[in-house]
Amino acid sequence: MAEIVDPEHADDEIVIQMSPWGEFFVWVARHVERLRREHRIVGHLSVSPSATSGPSSSVATKSSSAFTVRLPLRLSLEETALLLFRRIVVAIDSVRPVCSLNPPSPRTLARFDSALALHYAESMEIHKQRKRQRMLSYYGEILKGRKKRKAREAAKAGSSCSTDVGGSVQKDLYDENGVRLSKKRLKKLQRRKRRKVASVMESASDYLEEDCLDEQEDEINEPLPTLEELMGTTSTDDEKMTKYIPLHRPRPTPQEWRRDGEHTTLPVPDAARDSIEKVALWLLEISSKSQLDRNKNVIVRCRVFDDLWSRGFYITCSASKMGGDFLVYQGDPLFYHASHIVMVNPPQAPIFLSRLSASLRIANSVRKALVLATTSTDGDHGVAYTSLYWMGFHAPSGDVQHV
């Protein structure tokens, strides 16, 4: 199946970066889009750190669709080997850890600090614009809230005045000579105080009504506050605003901030371009993941992945795989459900009945066909498939072994 290449990005080479711990990433958004649209490589986008900062139990209960995904795109070894073998990517950008490099010069640090300060100022302006848009959409509610707050403050002032007048009754339990008043005398004084308080409250209510009318007239006459005045009432302290301003975004390191020896371009050796097995072995060697007991399994998975990809399927191997090694999709996983669960097994390696039964039950419960894939031993680099499903279950259209 011929791949569609956009002529607009024909000269824009896709860059795969290898981290010091042997993981493969794509940092440029347009490269991620090209891999998905033109080459059917899905990968796995990174999850926001805030989504995984809580307890593991709370994270496990959340749906994966609720997480915020972002760059970089993580590629598996099978996907990376395919891209190198098919000449879609020509080299690997290997990154050394910063702790093994020489410290930057003071001049470089000063330039970096000035660039970071400029980025912070630009991000602050963006944050203010977003805040302005939010306040503009709630402008009417903000004005109503300001009126209610003024009314509450006026009510509190009136209640405090009344409590001061009424509280003086409790103090007149003794006369001027310090002798306690009798009950009859005390009741007479309390009635006199209540009449005085009633007259005071009546005059105060009349005054408050007149004051409220004056305030309403003033509110009608005075102009409405602008958004700048409303924003000026909120806190603009830099320390409080820092948590809302992103200081940096996930992106590749600019050329001017790269240290000497930090990035090394590793092209694929000519001797390793003959087959995907040699490309996979070369990747295992440079990523320090080479282990004799698992190299054979990795090579078989790379061959099966390459064969399925050449048949026009979308294959994912970095997300939830439902007990298998790959999930096969008839189209883009954004629009299609997986149709097959692929379980790769090296040739002449035993398949335990317990694992086969468990995998088949999982595939049947999610209404997918289980595919056993292995490579041939006669040296023709072929791949053999066997589709399994329970009796009475209709196999998905586009069965792998009949494509």
How do the helices and strands follow one another from N- to C-terminus? EEHEHEHEHHHHHEHHEEEHEE
Instruction: Strand order, main sheet: write it out.
Output: 3-4-2-1-5-6
Q: Indicate the mean pLDDT.
A: 78
Derived from helix and strand composition plus strand pairing, the structural class reads: alpha+beta
Model regions low in confidence, pLDDT < 50 over at least 5 residues: 1-5, 56-65
Q: How much helicity do the residues have?
A: 40-55%
The percent range for strand residues is 5-15%
What would you report as the Rg, rounded to the nearest angstrom? 37 Å
Major sheet attributes: 6 strands, mixed
**Shape verdict:** elongated
Count the beta strands. Answer: 11
Distance, first to last CA = 12 Å
Descriptive overview:
The chain is of the alpha+beta class and 403 residues long. Helices cover 44% and strands 13% of the residues. The protein has helices at residues 29-37, 56-61, 77-85, 106-137, 139-167, 183-221, 227-232, 238-241, 276-286, 292-310, 353-365; strands at residues 16-18, 24-26, 44-47, 69-75, 91-95, 263-267, 314-316, 326-329, 338-344, 369-375, 383-388. The two termini are 12 Å apart. Pfam families: tRNA_int_endo, TSEN34_N. Residues 16-93 form the TSEN34 N-terminal domain. One of its GO terms (molecular function) is nucleic acid binding.
